[in-house]
Amino acid sequence: MNLVFLGAPGSGKGTQAGRLALRLAASHLATGDLLRAAVSTGSNLGRQAEAFMNAGELVPDEVIIGLIVEKQRMGELNGGFILDGFPRTLPQATALEKMCAEVGAGIDRAVLLEVEDDEIVRRLSGRLYCTRCQAGYNVHHDGSRPQAEGVCDRCHGPLTRRGDDDAGVIRNRVQVFRSQIRPIAEYYRSQSVLLTIAGNGTPDEVFSRISEGLGLE
Ligand code: AP5
Ligand code: MG
């Protein structure tokens, strides 16, 4: 199954796409994670993306489409994929459709996670990750708090916040999302593949809704 995950910052794209990829044994490609890895190694891609990401703006289409084309050439889209945070613009959606058509594939479902703005801010202001092993935590939610403050349960590495989880940048990221989502949602609705899911509730509850919507339960 080939899926794309759409949704505001903090709507749970990474959380849910990760779980679903395990369930479906599919590749999980998150453009934000790929870009952050590129920034941390100081690669050419990272240098092109960094200022946009720090400001909560979208990285230019040609840069991000180039990244996905490269992943396709490396075979990472073969055998079922879940794209998390891509596409975010119509040119990205049409480029993806073209890439899929070249190998006789298509997008089976576009999952749009809907979450209220207050909850987005709450989730993102509580998010932490380990700088060593990348494990994720959230101080606002039982079950995902680290046992010792600021220290990773798994590897004892230091925990930090994402650079773009600053209040002002979160506001801009949400605004950018709201300004882009309508045509993308319409694009997938017109192809009868849009699946809109309420992203509130616990991660387990959201996962159940997605699984049901995809006919997996
Ligand atoms: P990206 O990394 O994709 O960030 P984003 O879209 O802002 O989304 P997040 O990763 O912050 O949230 P999420 O929806 O994955 O939520 P998560 O599961 O982590 O993009 C970053 C930047 O890269 C962009 O701003 C842009 O600059 C650039 N970029 C990326 N893709 C691009 C593209 N295609 N085109 C152009 N530029 C691009 O959950 C958030 C928190 O909430 C976590 O702590 C989690 O544990 C918790 N949580 C999750 N679900 C629940 C729940 N149900 N209840 C309680 N807590 C929950
Ligand atoms: Mg994410």
Structure characterization notes:
The protein has 217 residues and is of the alpha/beta class. It has a domain at 2-116 and 193-213: P-loop containing nucleotide triphosphate hydrolases (Rossmann fold, 3-Layer(aba) Sandwich), CATH 3.40.50. The chain has helices at 13-24, 31-41, 44-55, 61-73, 90-102, 117-126, 167-190, 203-213; strands at residues 2-7, 27-30, 81-84, 109-114, 127-130, 136-138, 159-160, 194-198. The strands form two sheets. A five-stranded parallel beta sheet has the order 2-3-1-4-8, with helices on both faces. A three-stranded antiparallel beta sheet has the order 6-5-7. A hairpin with a 5-residue loop joins β5 and β6. α1 packs across α8 and α2 (31-41) packs across α3 (44-55). The longest helix is centred in the C-terminal third of the chain and has 24 residues, at 167-190. The protein is globular. The protein starts with a strand and ends with a helix. The structure holds BIS(adenosine)-5'-pentaphosphate and magnesium ion (MG). Magnesium ion is lined by residues 13-14, 30, 32, 85.
Keywords:
five-stranded parallel sheet; 8 strands; binds magnesium ion; alpha/beta; Rossmann fold; 49% helix; three-stranded antiparallel sheet; globular
